[in-house]
Amino acid sequence: MVTAYDYPSATHVDAAGVDVLLVGDSAAMVVHGHDTTLPVTLDEMLLHCRSVARGARAPLLVGDLPFGSYEASPRQAVESAVRLLKEGGMDSVKLEGGGGARVAAAKAVVGAGVAVMGHVGLMPQAISVLGGFRPQGTSASSAVRVLREALALRDAGCFAVVLECVPAALAAAITEALRPSGVPTIGIGAGPHTSGQVLVYHDLLGMMAHPHYRQVTPKFCKKFAQIGEQVQNALSDYCDEVRSGSFPSALHTPYQLDERATEELSKALRAEGEVGAAEAAERVFEEKKKRT
Ligand code: KIV
Fold it and tell me: Of 57, 154, 170, 181, whose CA is between 20 and 30 Å from 163?
């Protein structure tokens, strides 16, 4: 699984043969520039979902329910989930948390006919109560709590469960416990013993090269490319070439007037009293003639 947030990223994820595409609320951070996932709204997520749905044909599309769109009641969860499918073109939704209220929300959404992916361990929407972006399940008692949450989400009908920032042994234990029910785990910062893996598009591509982002790039993320550097170099080269006049060269100047049209234009401009403009058009025509 990989995240995507717009048409071009969706087309790349699709072409790479990724099985599941998550329109994550990580959009708040990597697309909108917030420090947490909390500010992104359901309407903003819907815009991302619609763009992604136009670009990705093969992967299963999962739309993240953003903070504030499902916690109030199972009814609110169902209404928001239905919007992600009806208006956003998603196939399923994801919600964070495996406590009582979240399990009830997951159950209600599944009952309404919408497939739900669960998410336990580090839940970025819960940083207020978790005390920040911290790994979870790092003591025996909290590991048991995370395991119970995953099982509760399975019982609520979730078709898969994301395990974020938990020790590898706990991820292996949860994966094993869910195996008989056919519910896969999808790990992020959870080691190799999960059924699948997920990374954030911008993180795995090394897209965020600016100093602020470098502070928050997760430790567990492997950068499979340094796209941010390439983007930066390309933009700098573009600026340099425009300023020096070397872009656009003849190669990137496809539209030309022929001799007759140039003469007619020049005549018309002179008739309007625009002698300088007429000379400019003639000069360009002569320069092109010299080159060919
Ligand atoms: O929003 C997101 O990108 C996620 C993944 C990190 C699982 O929830």
Answer: 57
